[in-house]
Give the backbone structure.
Amino acid sequence: MHVALLNTLYPPVMRGGAERSVETLASLLRDSGVRVSIITCGVETIARQVDVHHLPMPHRNPWSAELRPMGKVIWHARDITNPVQAKRVAALLRTLRPDIVHTHNLAGIGVGAWREARSLRIPVVHTLRDYYLMCLRSTLYSKGAVCHNRCLSCSTVSRPRQVYADAEVGTVIGISEHILNRHVDCGYFGRVSRRLVIRNPNVSAPSSGAMASTNEAVATRNQAVVYVGQLTPEKGVHVLAQAFLDAGNPKGRLYIAGQGPPEYQRRLDEIVRGDNRVRFLGRMPWQEAMALGEIVAVPSLWEEPFGRVVAEASSMGRYVLFSDIGGLPEAAMVSEAAGEAVMAGSVHAWSCALNRAMRGERKPAVKTNAAVLSSEETVLQEHLKAYRELMRRGT
């Protein structure tokens, strides 16, 4: 079997968890004897032990801080179906001749790639890892709130994507029940008979060396809170910072590992005001960041499709405080994380939860059989089963 995986970016070029998840899937497939080809955008790099084909960005990088508002409008208009990139994908597919095209995040590639694959009689599987098909920002989050009803601009731009999703995709996979249901409830994949939930595989616990790589916080680790991720408004880091300060624990520490736009960093600096209990670490490996504290906070304000950080924290035995929206509660359940769901966006609720955790008042993990369902072997076999069934049915 030969599978072509399409994703906007691929390691070592990364923006978030999607790139790591696609890399993990590629590795599992390759180790099982499947031939894997990667089609991705961005700077050409050398990937590890996998066949990678790079597409040029047909227009300016949408995540660039230098891109002005009108430039973003033009970018999104071109990216609705992205015919230029679709033709490049078609040329690669004619050369590679895969048995399955499996798409993931499609910003910069476009849903036109689905139609090109189908025209070549190659079945298409799509995994939902964000809200790109529904939302210009891919987050369903705007003006400080979750978008329960889509705005006119998102509805207009996403309509062609919805049509393509119904007509061109053979099997759709959600990385959580939440993200799959969110799309189906909005009318997506209405004609797709095969809808599956295959969650990201559980994260293996890091080596003892990674766990002990940082010793400076050993004395205060039990009262140290760690945030790992992008520093953007929808991630709720400002809520966490204010809640930590309001908790007023003189022995507490807050470590923030990540990067983001300068204007949001300034907002965080204004909240913290030089308090030496709060440290901004910049981008660093999650294992090293989580070695600094026993408590990991995931204060997202948007509906995370899954919540990889929750699973990573659980693999290290960390106590996890997470927002009670989106796929985060599902991620906590599947990874059997010890922790507590906290009201999203409530500084008071987060302050109380942080106080309880730093005082040692912690809820135990709830043991279920869900972790078995997200083992690497189970995730691999579920994908192989989906591929084989689609190949038997045809496009």
